[in-house]
User: Which sequence fits this backbone?
């Protein structure tokens, strides 16, 4: 403990005695954040040794440089200009000839010694360490990276502290996400409550790779790490194609031209969930499509790569009975599915910066469902959804309040104008009204100005969330179904209030 001697002096008998502040509790033992992290990782090493002895583990630390620790006292350091070399860092296993053959079953003791020898100090080469860890984990598809930090990246690639170039920073962390997806690696981030780590950018990596982002109490890290490592990847390169009846479509998805709607998932864990919202097409001239129809057919085709490299396709077909009676449909509503969809869609809108639309999306869905809840199970799910929705709504409102205190006041209609792709194009009926060429040019120019204003506003909102990890954490976390209490009530990371 550097500097501890400064608080010890010799008493009248020549014996060193500890000095205390006035009214300080002398019966309290203080534990550092590093000690909490060491204890949490040590518990995971012991668990892996017993339950998964054939797994391989590497510890990557970062301060002024990046150090990779392996069993057998093998260490590899990356420093200087290499901290800014993306390809070198991603391919560090081959460029540094790093051996990854020892299993945790035979090397746990070595790794524990390494773990408890670590000390704090220096800068935070978080970006280079993250890329290196992804490269190491990528040698085995399905592997996971758990990044624990209590500070902002401030040296090498991905520097966040004092960096106002959001475009470059966003591009870097997007590249990390794409590299991890290509290698079949999930990235989870654990930050320490009360610190600033810029989760606005780090959280996006978790969302993209099916990892978890969490702002943790240092004393609960062991439980947090255990839960994160249980959420392991079961397949990579996952692509989901939904094929629907010709009379309906999926909102927010593009048709592939063959009646299918494609979602590129990437990594998938056993808890990965996708929800869809469908709508009825305009059939004013084709009413016969639904004539005498009693069932609607659905098919989902899942293309994926197993962890052994096998390419697989799974197809699931189902027909759902339809009704024209609203009450009948409402009685069968699955509150958990609707709630999860609402929560994830609202979180995605908030992440884009369309705060008012996010709040309205959640509110509209809850109002619709609240009128239909009758069964006890539905009521339980609705209460849980309400609690979860409040977390997200509070984060959005906090972000909006911060804007207002800084003099930014957006009317809801102005705030999210042209927020959907369809709003960026001129409606056909509007085109017919605009007969003159001048009017058409003015309309197009007006649309361009609104689009530019919106993009600038959303960019500003994302930049503002850099300074508020609590808001950024909630918004990105809400996109993960693992944090939905109504679906996963036993989630230990969810603090029930």
Assistant:
């Amino acid at each position: 403990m550097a500097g501890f001697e400064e608080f010890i002096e010799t008493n009248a008998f020549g014996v060193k005695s500890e000095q205390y502040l006035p009214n300080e509790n002398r019966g309290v033992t203080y534990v550092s954040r590093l000690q909490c992290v060491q204890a949490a990782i040590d518990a995971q090493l012991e668990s892996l040794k017993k339950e998964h002895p054939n797994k391989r583990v590497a510890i990557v630390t970062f301060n002024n440089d990046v150090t990779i620790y392996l069993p057998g006292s093998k260490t590899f350091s990356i420093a200087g200009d290499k901290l800014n070399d993306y390809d070198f860092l991603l391919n560090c296993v081959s460029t540094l000839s790093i051996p990854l053959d020892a299993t945790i079953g035979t090397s746990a003791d070595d790794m524990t010694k390494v773990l408890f020898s670590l000390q704090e100090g220096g800068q935070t080469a978080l970006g280079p360490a993250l890329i290196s860890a992804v490269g190491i984990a990528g040698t085995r598809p399905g592997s996971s990276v758990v990044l624990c930090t209590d500070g902002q990246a401030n040296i090498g690639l991905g520097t966040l502290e004092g960096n106002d170039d959001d475009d470059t920073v966003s591009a870097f962390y997007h590249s990390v996400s794409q590299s991890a997806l290509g290698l079949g690696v999930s990235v989870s981030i654990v930050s320490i409550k009360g610190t600033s780590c810029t989760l606005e950018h780090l959280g996006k990596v978790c969302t993209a790779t099916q990892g978890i982002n969490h702002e943790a109490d240092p004393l609960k890290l062991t439980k947090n790490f255990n839960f994160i490592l249980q959420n392991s990847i079961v397949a990579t390169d996952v692509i989901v194609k939904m094929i629907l009846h010709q009379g309906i479509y999926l909102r927010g998805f593009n048709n592939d031209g063959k009646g299918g709607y494609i979602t590129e998932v990437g990594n998938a864990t056993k808890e990965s969930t996708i929800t869809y919202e469908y709508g009825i097409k305009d059939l004013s001239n084709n009413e016969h499509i639904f004539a005498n129809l009693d069932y609607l057919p659905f098919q989902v085709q899942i293309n994926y790569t197993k962890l052994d490299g096998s390419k697989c396709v799974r197809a699931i077909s189902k027909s759902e009975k339809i009704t024209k009676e609203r009450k009948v449909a409402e009685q069968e509503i699955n509150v958990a599915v609707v709630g999860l969809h609402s929560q994830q869609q609202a979180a995605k809108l908030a992440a884009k910066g369309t705060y008012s639309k996010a709040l309205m999306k959640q509110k509209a869905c809850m109002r619709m469902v609240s009128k239909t809840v009758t069964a006890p199970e539905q009521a339980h799910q609705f209460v849980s959804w309400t609690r979860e929705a409040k977390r997200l709504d509070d984060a959005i409102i906090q972000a909006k309040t911060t804007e207002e205190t800084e003099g930014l006041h957006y009317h809801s209609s102005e705030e999210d104008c042209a927020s959907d792709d369809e709003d960026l194009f001129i409606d056909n009926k509007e085109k017919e009204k605009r007969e003159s060429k001048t009017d058409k040019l003015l309309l197009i120019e007006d649309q361009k100005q609104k689009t530019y204003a919106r993009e600038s506003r959303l960019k500003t909102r994302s930049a503002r969330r850099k300074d508020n990890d609590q808001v950024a954490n909630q918004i990105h976390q809400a996109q993960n179904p693992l944090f939905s209490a109504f679906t996963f009530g036993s989630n230990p990371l969810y603090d029930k209030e």
Summary: The radius of gyration is 26 Å.
